[in-house]
Amino acid sequence: MEHFLDSYEISLVVKAAISVIMALSLNMITGFCGQISLGHAAFQGVGAYTAVILTLQGYNFAFATAGGMISAGTLGFVVGLTSLRVRHDFLAITTMGVAFLFSGIVEQTKALGDTDGISNYPHPEFDPFGYMVMTLTLAVLVLAISIYVQRSWMGTAFKSIADDEDTARLLGIDVARFKLAAFVIGTAIAGMGGSIYAHQTTIIQASDFGFIESITILSMVVFGGVGSIPGVIIAAIILTLFPLWSQVIGDYKLLFYGGLLFIMMRFSPQGLSGLASDAVKWARLERRKVV
Amino acid sequence: MTEISLLVQGLLDGSLYALISVGLTLVYGLLRILHVAHAGFFTLGGYLCVVVTNATGSFPLAILVAIVASGLLGMVIYRLVYHPILRHPPFVALIASIGLFIAMEESFRIIFGEQGVAYIAPPLQITLQMGELFLPISKIIAFVAATTLIGGLGLLAAKTRTGIAWRATVTEPEMASSFGINIINVRYLNFFIGSALAAVAGIIFSLTTNLVEPTSGDVWSYKALAIIVLGGLGSMKGTLIACFALGIIEAYCTTNIIGQIMNRDAIAFAFLIVVLMIRPQGLFTKR
Predict the structure, then answer these.
(1) Which domain holds residue B82?
(2) Among B75, B14, B28, CA closest to B236
(3) A90–B contact, CB cutoff 8 A
(4) Which residue of B has its CA nearest to A79?
(5) Is residue B218 within 8 Å of residue B39, measured between CB atoms?
(6) Is the predicted ipTM greater than 0.90, yes or no?
(7) Which of A212, A247, B44, B67 is the most exposed place for a label (fewest CB within 10 A)?
(8) Which member of B104, B262, B277 has the closest CB to residue A85?
(9) A105 and chain B: CB distance < 8 Å anywhere?
(10) Contact call for residues A68 and A191 (beta carbons, < 8 A)
(11) pLDDT digits 0-9 by tens, B220-270
(12) Is beta strand B127-130 parallel, antiparallel or unpaired with respect to B133-136?
């Protein structure tokens, strides 16, 4: 069957779709519920390792992915429990600690291939195009879940916790339950992203899910505008494809990321969505001036 | 005997942690910002010391250049980066700081090269032997420098007018301001001293390893953050105790079963998470 995309373009689409999934899953925790996480890639890693181990045992891709989601979500539940104990800056550093614990333990464990990682595991029997369609379908599903959660009562509760946790508690919102829900949903989706990632590449290593990767995901959320679904999706796509397309930016990828994060925070802490709403306001003002 | 050498090792590492964490605690105490980019000054201090020593042949001059340049850059960073975003929620400054740190590391890579730099003729490479104990002189200097500098800082804060102004600003910024203290100057001083101390730590690091790479500051950055959180964020006493506790715990744990399960960096964070679960406010807190 002839496709209109070559294999390189297909791999780009899959990469971008994985980024969208990861960014939306972090947006659930950091954007909707206001709980900062500096270790999100660790959950992707847990999902990826679980899924790969399950495929090595002979289970199919769907089952392995579900397993990855469950293990990542379980770890997310535990980290969610810590978010009930510590807040703000303390939580940021604790989640950063989770990222270092993940790579620190995986790299010392023989069964997980220590620093060499795991390779030579079976891949699902899709052709690349089919894999791309599946990834895109899952990304759309995650988008649908995000929109659903945002519009539901749960989304309102999340928002109240993000705005002011103490007031939310005063209003009778079960803060602990909703925080845990945000962490479990977000990290389980990250686990799914991990499984998709692992079955697209041929080798997984702890360093694929390190602190810098966590920051990369966070920068997508921040660049897009914390909590804004369209902003986060656009940012995830731009920040994934830009470094791959342009070789100059590719070489200075980290400088680009670092500079971008810094400049965005310095001049527009609301990210792309903030810029967009500013632009809309400005355009309205201009129109009024003309009339 | 190994027990004692582990203890000594732990105290020596702890003193290096102390030099770098003190500046971080000062910034947090004053501005409530997690200054991730602080370790960038550690790396900068190391680089400048190596490069200037190699270029001029004078180690003391290199130390002076490294400390003053890092301190001044710290003030510039405060003015350009933190000052304009203080009114935003704390995560804005945190993410800006992470971005700045990544950008600083990449700048080091571009300016000084991928491979890192080393001394042509490394100064102070003597190892003292005491019984079965081998002590590199650079680590002893680290210990002496850390205790002297931090002790000096304590005296400055306790006895001088500047120190009183400084402490007043940390405790009650508005009140201090209404008593005629220039808060902005206090912040500049804070960043100068903090960054200069990080540079001192970087210089000592360059002596012990004789190699400074763009990513040399990574581990220190994250560990120093863990340390100040452990110490209770903003508490100087807690930070210093946490530094030495972590140094000793790392020295012991790498030799036993915990060291087989996880690597050295993970131990620091495992310790942090355990402590935070028991005491969410850190080991010591002021309020």
Answers:
(1) 14-217
(2) B28
(3) yes
(4) B273
(5) yes
(6) no
(7) A247
(8) B277
(9) yes
(10) yes
(11) 888 888 888 887 777 777 888 888 888 888 878 777 766 666 677 778 888
(12) antiparallel
